[in-house]
Amino acid sequence: MPWKNGDVTDWTPLAEITPPIALGPLDGRYRRTVAPLVDHLSEPALNRQRLHVEVEWFIHLCATNAVLGTRELTSDEVALLRAIPAGFDADGIAEHAEIERETIHDVKAIEYYIKRRLVGTSLENLSELTHFACTSEDINNLSYALMVKGAVSEVWLPAAQDLVTQIADLATASAGLPMLSRTHGQTATPTTLGKELAVLAHRLRRQLRRIEGAEYLGKINGATGTYGAHTAAVPGTDWITVSRTFVEGLGLTWNPLTTQIESHDWQAELYADVARFGRILHNLTTDVWTYISLGYFAQAAAPGSIGSSAMPHKINPIRFENAEANLEISAALFDSLGSTLVTSRLQRDLTDSTTQRNIGVAFGHSLLAIDNVARGLKTLSVNEAALAADLDASWEVLAEPIQSAMRAASIAGVPGMDKPYERLKELTRGQQIDAAAIREFVGTLGLPDAVAERLSELTPGTYVGLAERLVRDYL
User: Do 182 and 53 belong together in one domain?
Assistant: First the structure.
């Protein structure tokens, strides 16, 4: 019997299977989609950036002659140093882990890893420049800034931009396609499908501009941000200038005032913008899901795919539902990151260390959602017949333009135009109105001939205002 007291007793322990099975979906089921983030936001990526920052600090100290006894490095020596992070591979990862098991400190293990590679070289006598006057957070804050900047600019942002372009293209293609709108879920003034998609594309683009303009801050000023060790060791050096030029040389914005840590405010700002982009995209997924349920969009099934295990006729909108869930997870993680990282007890606590190790998870769920929306949109085709049928069954929506024309006529002095709203309310609320009823009503109002003719020619499908122009001019 496999069961004893409700517990499984004879199943193979999955934790013992080699290669190891992923605990989470990002490193398991969805690995291929989020794999590009591994180069930027994984633990080995963090250690590679730490190596990069350490060797660039070594090179910078020599180039600025900041420490007595340094000299200008040769091009071969610079190449030797830069080869350390460049060659950080599986063996290097294992070696660093081995050193860390002894040091019980990941950044100190980075220092020792570099020093091992300087033994027997022309730089051995300068090896104490490695991690000179640094606290771990001098290395970490710069490494995380470079990691997140790379992940955003090289992976997340291109994917998000491509998706928004895809949405904008669909909006442009359907800019003039009339659609019944639903405010509060109720029949309302017609719009166009393209205009509604354009609203979402426009909102998403605004968030992308904010994300494109994000600042990535960094510092390298010692254990409590005072340059205490720097000035004690070499008081004659302009350490503020050395620090600023180094941080800016990495492509980051220098933060002159910090505690032991860089304050992480820039991270909270960025994550709020990425989360907001996700929430707007979430709005798109739920709207498109609803349009699919109304029959406005048809979905193309992938060959051999199963929509439902029990109902053969179904094609479920799984891409949009998957995206919706991943956007919710991503937003929750980004919110947690932003709220945790802006607070540190006194000059330093370690809450940020554990928190920042989840940056990749937050971006992973966001990237997965973007991928699902993009793939889902590619399966859609517009069902123009369904759009037209809904409009043709909703002549009551013309109550709005008729009463507005009556108001304008009343202002212009045309008699008999009193209580236009109330008269249209009596005609249409809770009533099934058709074209004949609308036109008959218009004919009884005594409107000027040109106005009456214009209203009589109006249909739910032509009552879309400037929707198409808005898409063409502003998207």
Answer: no
C-alpha angle 337/340/345, rounded to 5°? 150
Closest C-alpha among 158, 111, 338, 144 to residue 250: 144
Do residue 211 and residue 278 come from a single domain?
yes
Same domain, 165 and 309: yes
| Helix boundaries (H) for 185-341 | 193-212, 228-233, 239-249, 265-293, 318-341
CA gap 126, 114 in Å, rounded:
12
Half-sphere exposure of 21 toward its Cβ, with a 13 Å CA cutoff?
A: 7
Closest CA to 289 of 379, 203, 206, 201: 379
CA distance 53 to 55: 6
Q: Is 8 in contact with 326 (CB distance < 8 Å)?
A: no
Chain centroid offset of residue 433 CA: 45
Q: Which of 40, 26, 55 is nearest to 157 (CA)?
A: 40
Tell me how far apart the alpha carbons of residues 320 and 368 are, in angstroms, rounded to a whole number: 11
CB 387 within 8 A of CB 177: yes
**Whether 284 contacts 373, CB under 8 Å:** yes
- Tell me: the pLDDT tens digits for 82-130? 999 999 999 999 999 999 999 999 999 999 999 999 999 999 999 999 9
**Looking at the structure, do residues 212 and 316 belong to the same domain, yes or no?**
yes
Report d(CA 411, CA 417) in Å as an integer.
Answer: 9
Say which CATH number the domain at 321 has.
1.20.200.10
CB 153 within 8 A of CB 40: no
Task: For residue 128, give its domain range.
Answer: 37-134
Which residues make Cβ contacts (< 8 Å) with residue 418, sequence separation at least 6? 410
Q: How far apart are the first and last CA of the chain?
A: 65
Three-state SS for 267?
A: helix
The verdict on 67 and 87 lying in the same domain is yes
Query: 161-205 pLDDT, tens per residue?
Result: 999 999 999 999 999 999 999 999 999 999 999 999 999 999 999
**pTM assigned to the model:** 0.93
Number of domains in the chain: 3
Helix 467-474 with 193-212: angle, nearest 10 deg: 30
Residues 53 and 97 in one domain: yes
Kindly state whether residues 149 and 272 are assigned to the same domain.
yes
Question: Is there a single domain that holds both residue 117 and residue 77?
Answer: yes
Residue with tokens 């009503």, as numbered in its chain = 441
CA 223 to centroid of chain Cα atoms: 33
CATH number at residue 417: 1.10.40.30
- Strands 3-4 and 7-8 come out as antiparallel
Which residues are the active-site residues? Answer: 184, 308
